[in-house]
Amino acid sequence: MPTMIYILDDEKEIRKALRVILEDENYVVEDFANGKSLLKAVSKERPSLVLLDVWVGKEDGLNILDECKKLYPTLPVVMISGHGTIELAVNATKKGAIDFLEKPLSIEKVIQTIERSLQKTKDFSLPEFELEVDEILGDSKEIQHVKFSISQATLTNAPVFIYGENGSGKKLTSKTIYLNSKRQKLPYIEFNCAAIAEDLIEQELFGYEKNSPTNGKEEKIGKLEEANFGTLFLDDISDLSISTQSKLLKVLQEGKLQRLGGGKWIELDLRIIVASNVDILESIKDGKFREDLYYFLNIIPIHIPPLRERIQDIPKIVEFYLLKTIADNGLKPKSMDRDALDVLNHHFWPGNVRELRNIVERLTILVPSDTITGKDVKEALHGFKKANDMVARGDLKHAKEEFEKQYIIRTLQICEGNVTRTSKALGIERTHLYRKLKSLNISVEQLNEG
User: What is the pLDDT of residues 330-356, one digit of tens each?
Assistant: First the structure.
């Protein structure tokens, strides 16, 4: 596979000179005069490395670096500056830049820096580790890093904070930590903080006493107490209100809780794992997430890479779900041809592994022939707005929301408007789906009428 290098600089002569130098070294080169055109290209294809000027006209290169890293967290980016300072280099490094070049550029220095930066990604190695239970599909270095982090997390009882986009595998990562930990035979409780109405969250987490103001007749054991001595996984923790976050932090710090309306203290000994698909640091900055809770939970951070960043894992994931769907539904054997895999490899996958799984299941069930072709895959993907076109406009949040809306609508149509079947197909709870339908302004009745 050729080594693709993108160059962003507003000075045409510098772009031209760098292109000549790098093409002489057998690199494939694309150059851009503004951030918009670079981000459009990056959203469609991941380069091997980006050379990025600190100032591109009036555009701040550090902001462009942020956008590149949102798309591909491990993409190597080398910053270029005509007036470099130590502070600038430090800021660029903090934001994920792998190296820094100063103008006027030395041919030898440019080549050495690129070779060194590319070698860093190739030389990435981990100590030997082993997971007794491992259902995470893929052998890429990105997913190996995740598995190594899991192996380290299983050695302790420290809190774990899992970060990743929707459908990337946060829930599976949590379950894998639990199944390989010393608490594997003790309770494992999952709780989605986004799936329950805000006024019921505290009842679900903390429970309540019989004859309490919260609920008059029966007592309720909350999820924290239910997970006692075992592991509690809180998904979408960023959806908790600030008030609930404060109470949760107090319980976790003190290791004990009182049910709502109760006076008795209950000692707690549990492992807490949480997950979020939003930028928690931004949420802290916006006053939506408590900084002290973040520091308490962020002892072992695990970042799940998006599927577009580990496309080499796609064939293995496809094979697994293809065979599973055939076995689960008693279907005759099927295979995917090279063109079909090629189409899958070039899709942006904003829905990540969950989206790929659903596509494979749909193709396996609906394609009548023994071989799934590239045409079949394109037709299966038809009807969803192209996420890369939306990302190219520089609005990744809108792209994800729009994709999610189109994906839910399409799945509802396939399930003939049946919300229960749709929630199972999407892998989310029905109450969570109802909340999504409301927030995305999707009417099941209108779909049925259509």
Answer: 999 999 999 999 999 888 888 899 999
Spatial distance between the Cα atoms of 18 and 83, rounded to a whole number of angstroms: 19
Cα–Cα distance between 159 and 270 in angstroms, integer?
A: 10
Nearest to 428 by CA among 262, 289, 235, 273: 235
Return the half-sphere exposure (C-beta side, CA atoms, 13 A cut-off) of residue 195.
15
Pairing of strands 59-60, 231-235: unpaired
Against a cut of 0.70, is the pTM above it? Answer: no
The string of DSSP letters for 225-244 reads: HHTTTSEEEEETGGGS-HHH
* Residue 245 structure tokens: 């976050």
Cα 311 from Cα 133, distance rounded (Å): 23
Who's near 115: CB < 8 A, 6+ residues apart? Answer: none
Q: Where are the alpha helices (DSSP H) in 286-418?
A: 291-297, 314-329, 338-345, 352-366, 374-381, 387-391, 396-414
Rounded distance between C-alpha atoms, residue 286 and residue 133, angstroms? 39
Please write the tens of the pLDDT for every residue from 256-275. Answer: 999 988 778 999 999 999 99
Scanning the structure block, which residue is given the tokens 């600190």? 54
Higher per-residue pLDDT: 189 or 81: 189
Angle, CA 108 vertex, CA 106 and CA 112 arms, to 5°: 115
Which residue intervals of 258-337 are DSSP H helices? Answer: 280-285, 291-297, 314-329
Q: How far apart are CA 18 and CA 313, in angstroms?
A: 33
Backbone angles phi, psi at 249, to 5 degrees: -60, -45
DSSP 8-class letter at 444:
H
Distance CA 131, CA 148 (A): 9
Q: How far apart are CA 90 and CA 276, in angstroms?
A: 27
Task: Map tokens 């299941």 to a residue.
Answer: 361
Measured distance CA(404)–CA(398) in Å, rounded: 10
- In contact, 229 and 187? CB cutoff 8 Å: yes
Cis peptide before 73 (omega within 30 of 0): no
